[in-house]
Amino acid sequence: MRKVNLSDVTDYELKSPKGKYHERGKEISLALGRDRDSLDLAKRHPFDLALQHIPAGGTLCPYHAHSAQSELYLVISGRGQVRDEGGTTEVVEGDAFFFGPGEAHQISNPGPHELSYYVIADNPIGESCYYPDSKKWAVSRPPDNIMMKGSETHYFDGEE
Question: Quick one: how far is CA 55 from the chain centroid?
Answer without folding.
Answer: 15
